[in-house]
Design a protein that fits this description.
Blueprint (H helix, E strand, L loop, with lengths): L2 E9 L1 H8 L4 E6 L2 E13 L9 E12 L4 E16 L7 E17 H6 L7 E15 L2 H15 L23 E16 L4 E12 L12 E13 L4 E6 L8 E9 L10 H8 L1 E5 L12 H13 L5 E5 L8 H21 L7 E5 L15 E6 L1
Length: about 375
């Protein structure tokens, strides 16, 4: 059965809206904010004596501001104590300590927010920082004492080659008094653990570098100290705001639906005699080679044509003569094909078929209705 496609367009807004509606979203937006920080820990001052002998207490307080979820700034004061020492051959190990205070300005970067996005409920965050400042030191009297001890030891040596009356070449003064301020730079990393929206427990480590003169001993390279601190960070105000993003308004959609409906059943076909002729009636009258006379074997077909034409008075018949291409010239074939059509025409007329109902044609050998050469010696009779 054949089907006809009918395209129907309609607005189905109500149904589409219900099916595609999206819920409103809530997002947490970072709020720039201030914070303060208190930390305590230890320091290791790089030197030539044992690690444990160069450890000293350390503390830091600071206030900072987070401009966005990644970048911030911090002003801090790091202070307490640094240590140094010297292993001198032939005498006891010399050690000394002094006090300092170092105001610092740092740029801070929250790596977790940078790579993972802001989440106020995240338990752990990692960051880095870097800054510059001034190291203001005092109380270097132990270094002055060590310098005197080493100098006295050198004086007892029989070989005074390389003897220096001032072994600690960068000693502040003979008595270790006074105050020295030096430029300091640092880099570090930190990790914070969330306790609440405003409070974090954190730890940080930093590497600090100064001039060679910081520990009073000449080494020909910068002096370093390393701080490890733990502490608490407390934020001021709201650190984030929760916002609701409304769901997008429903969009009315035009839905096109293809509905297949069966085509109406065709009306019963009344087969007329003429239609029967068009579809079913044809007779082929074959001729011998070079001949246009109707053979006795073809007379039955002639009788069938006559009967059919009498039973269908409205029918007309076309008589088309042909010649085979394999025999004779084109001019000869045109003539013999015409004679074959004429012979059938005359025979039908003699048997009562009106000449007005017959049309005769000749195709010669220009057209070959059959693949087999000999069968093209024919007059094809088609009733319409």
């Amino acid at each position: 059965m054949k089907f006809k496609s009918i395209l129907l367009s309609g607005l189905l807004a109500m149904g589409c809206t219900a099916a595609s509606a999206q819920e409103a979203k809530t997002v947490n937006v970072f709020n720039p904010h201030w914070y303060d920080q208190v930390q305590i820990g230890g320091q290791y001052t790089l030197g030539e004596i044992g690690f444990g002998k160069l450890l000293s207490p350390n503390a830091q307080i600071g206030v900072g501001y987070n401009f966005n979820k990644v970048v911030g700034a911090r002003l801090s004061i790091n202070a307490w104590q640094s240590k140094a020492g010297w292993n001198v051959e032939g005498m006891d190990q010399q050690k000394w300590k002094w006090n300092y205070i170092a105001p610092m300005v740092d740029a801070t970067f929250n790596l977790t927010n940078l790579f993972c996005g802001f989440n106020p409920n995240r338990l752990v965050e990692v960051g880095v920082f870097g800054g510059i400042g001034a190291n203001v030191a005092w109380g270097n009297d132990e270094a002055a004492t060590a310098n005197k001890n080493i100098s006295a030891h050198y004086a007892t040596l029989s070989d005074k080659k390389g003897y220096n009356k001032q072994p600690l070449a960068y000693l502040w003064d003979d008595n270790g008094e006074g105050t020295k301020a030096r430029f300091v730079a640092r880099v570090g990393a930190n990790v914070d653990f969330r306790l609440s929206d405003k409070v974090k427990l954190g730890a940080e480590i930093s590497a600090n570098t100064l001039s060679d003169k910081y520990n009073s001993k000449r080494a020909g390279n910068p002096d370093w100290y390393f701080n490890a601190l733990v502490g608490v960070k407390v934020a001021f105000g709201k650190t984030y705001t929760t916002k609701t993003i409304p769901a997008p308004k429903p969009v009315e959609k035009i839905i096109e639906r293809i509905i297949e409906k069966p085509a109406p059943a065709p009306a019963p076909k009344t087969e007329t005699k003429q239609e029967a002729v068009e579809e079913n009636f044809r007779r082929d009258i074959f001729f011998p080679i070079g001949n246009s006379n109707i053979a006795k074997s073809q007379t039955t077909k002639i009788a069938e044509i006559v009967t059919f034409m009498k039973e269908n008075p409205d029918a007309k018949i076309t008589l088309t003569g042909y010649a085979d291409k394999g025999t004779g010239s084109a001019a000869f074939n045109d003539k013999i094909a015409a004679r074959r059509a004429q012979t059938v025409y005359n025979t039908l007329a003699a048997k009562g078929v009106a000449k007005s109902r017959m049309i005769k044609k000749s195709m010669g050998s220009r057209v070959q209705p059959f693949e087999e050469n000999d069968m093209n010696r024919v007059t094809i009779c088609i009733a319409k």
